[in-house]
Amino acid sequence: MNKIMEYKTIILLTLLTFFVFGCALSPEERAVSVAKTLIAEYLKAPSTAKYQSTKIIEQSGQYYLIHVIVDAQNSFGAMIRGNYLVCIELTEGNRFKFNPNFAVQECSNPPDEMIISVVKKLNEWPEIKTSSSDAFGGSITEIKQREAEQILKQIYVMERAYWQENRTYTCNGESQSAGGSFATLGVDIMSTARYTYHITADKNSFTATAKANLDDDDTIDIWGINEKGELICIISDATS
C-alpha cells in the first residue's frame, strides 16, 4: 500500500493492566479494556460513553477481534449508538499493539462476515493455512474472480474509513487497473490484476465496480460493492 501501516505500542493504564478487585486481569479482560480505550479516543464525547456490550468474537494467539456496542453523545449532544470492531494484539508485559489506521472500524450488529474478514486482513491477522483442496477449490474462472472480491472489499473498508473522518466518500470517477492505485484510499491494484476498477462516489454513497474478460469470450465478468458493504456479482463469466 502507498500508506505505510505504522504500528505503535503503548503502555496500558494501571487501571487496565494490573488488578481488578484484587485479581490480575486475564488476557480476555485486557483485550476488552484495550478495545474500550481505543474506542474512547474515537468518540466525540468519551466521558458520556455507556458500553452496552463487549464481546470477543475471534481470537488467534495474541490477536483479538472485539465487537463493542456503545452509546455516546455526538457533536450535537444527542446520544447515539455505535457498533465497532476492534482488532488488537496483546504483547509482553502490560502492552499491546494496534494499527492506528484500521484497528477500529464501524460495523453492523452483528458484524457480517465480509467486514470481519477485511478488518482481519487490514490488521494482519495471522492466517491459518488451508489444505490445497480448500485453497484451489472451484473452477479456474471462480478462482480468478476472487481477485475482484478481495480488492472490492478493501475499497469498501477504506471508503468507510474515509467517510468516518471526512463525512463524504472519495475517488469519484477514478478508474484503476493493473499496477494502478486509488492513492487517496491507499488501495493498490496488483500488477497481475485482471480487472479494471471504477468508483462512483458522492457525499452519502459510493459504488465500486470490477470488470474483466476472464476467458476471452464475449462475456464481461462484472462485480460491484456499495457503501452498505453489499458485494454482488452482476454478470458472471463463470456461468457463461
Could you please describe the fold and organization of this structure?
The chain has 240 residues and is an alpha+beta fold. The protein is built from five helices and 15 strands. It has helices at 14-17, 27-42, 113-122, 132-135, 140-166; strands spanning 8-11, 19-20, 23-24, 45-60, 63-73, 79-90, 95-98, 104-106, 175-176, 181-182, 187-188, 196-201, 206-212, 221-226, 231-235. The strands form four sheets. Strands 1, 4, 5, 6, 7 and 8 form a six-stranded antiparallel sheet that branches. Strand 10 and strand 11 form a beta hairpin. Helix 3 (113-122) packs across helix 5. It is globular, with a radius of gyration of 20 Å. Mean pLDDT is 82; it is low at 1-22 and 129-137.
